[in-house]
Amino acid sequence: MFKLYFFLFVAFLNSCINGYDGSLMGGINAMKYYQTYFNMETVGSGTGLVFSVYTVGNIVGSFFCGPFTDWWGRRWGMFIGASIIIAGTCTQAPATSRAMFTGGRFILGFGVATCATAGPSYVAEMSHPAWRGTLTGLYNTFWFVGGIPATWALYGTEHIESDLSWRLPIWFQAVAPGLVMLGCLFCPETPRWLVSNDRHEEAIRVMARYHGEGDRNSPIVLLTYREMIEEIATEGSDKRWWDYKDLFNSKSAWWRLSCVVGMAFFGQWSGNGAVSYFMPVLLNQIGVKEERTQLLYNAILNVISFVMATIGARFVDRLGRRVVLLVGTSLFVVWWTIITTLTALYGTEENDNTYGSRSAIAFIYIFGITYSFSYTPLQALYPVECLSYETRAKGMGMYNLFVNIAAFFNTYAIPTVWQRIKWRFYFVYIAWDVFEVVFIYFLFVETKGRTLEEINEIFEAPYPKRKSMQKHIVVITDRGILDKGLEEHY
């Protein structure tokens, strides 16, 4: 199991890569030497372009990451993505022009798309079934393991009186992908990929060693292998790089896609985009204008968010995916209503009410904490669970595409619109979060307590959401696996 945790840790590092950049650019955007060197401002169309080109690279990469991960496997998919990210870092860090800097960010985004597809797929397929929810939930919490060093690196280099103040943190971006490339050489391939490529003996050995404590006849190995044989086609659409029709060719496929796309947009448009990328701007709006203090607030929020996301990863198995999402999203409506009110009252230049400003900061923190607990663990876990094996890599590529379409809005539209309407933009978040609650209640299925193959039964039902609320039973006796079915049958 300790070896297995090492392999999963290597996959977790793919999430660090994205987290590092997400926190890095928010801080660099506020640094005077960066602004002076490239003639940039904190907000505006130029800033929006630099932020959004990373997203554009991610969108383009979304069409390649599925085939990469299906053709060569999950671990080599991670290797390919990490190598592209290192190339992007080597372009961005020594950049001598805005065009070169922007090009490096495009390459980074392209590589991250592959890592964001191969990484969570590897974790979900390689984790022990009893801990899949917690371990795959932990994958996305490592966004903060990347984000925390980024914010503290910026806080530490901010005092350097040269361009090294922003170049050095960018060079550090090569650390996580370098570790991924090295670690992938020691990782086994996932049993599901091996079965789908007709390498059954290798798949059984991997499951026996890391899931069955060396016993090929372990019930968990027998059950999982039998379900793989029943559900995974060796001639599925994952063998055809151009074939995306299984994502759209049936009612069950459309329901799966609704859950996947819903999670993609909800994870980006709940209000976290403003907090993650533009924390310094928000703080400036409510009276915290000193650059070093803004960076400190951003760094502290990342540490707290990581702790809450880690706790949330454990609760997705205890409470269930739907409960966590419904409660968390409902609280978003409350928090943004309060933040909007406080910013309207105390977010003016002439404001001298420090208690009002501090209250607004506190609720921005509370929103970030709630988001980290409820959404961060599920952003990788939920879409992976909702996709069948044959469509998992391409489906995660589609998920990544929609995430970045949503993120493009965050990184380009928000700074542009913010200049015109300021805090009134928060009303959009309030209305959208209300819509999210309704959508989740009626369409999102519960995936807790099932193997990846058993989840397929949910989407074949006439109303998958209702089917998913019924408990699933597996009966194992000394005569083997006798039956499995719904609780109501017993």
UniProtKB/TrEMBL annotation:
InterPro entries: MFS_dom (IPR020846), MFS_sugar_transport-like (IPR005828), MFS_Sugar_Transporters (IPR050360), MFS_trans_sf (IPR036259), Sugar/inositol_transpt (IPR003663), Sugar_transporter_CS (IPR005829). Residues 1-19 form the signal peptide. It is found in: Membrane. GO terms for cellular component: membrane. Pfam families: Sugar_tr. One of its GO terms (molecular function) is carbohydrate:proton symporter activity. The chain crosses the membrane at residues 43-64, 76-94, 106-124, 136-155, 170-187, 254-275, 295-316, 323-347, 359-378, 399-418, 424-444. Keywords: Membrane, Signal, Transmembrane, Transmembrane helix, Transport. Belongs to the major facilitator superfamily. Sugar transporter (TC 2.A.1.1) family. This is General substrate transporter. It comes from Choiromyces venosus 120613-1. The lineage of its organism: Eukaryota, Fungi, Dikarya, Ascomycota, Pezizomycotina.
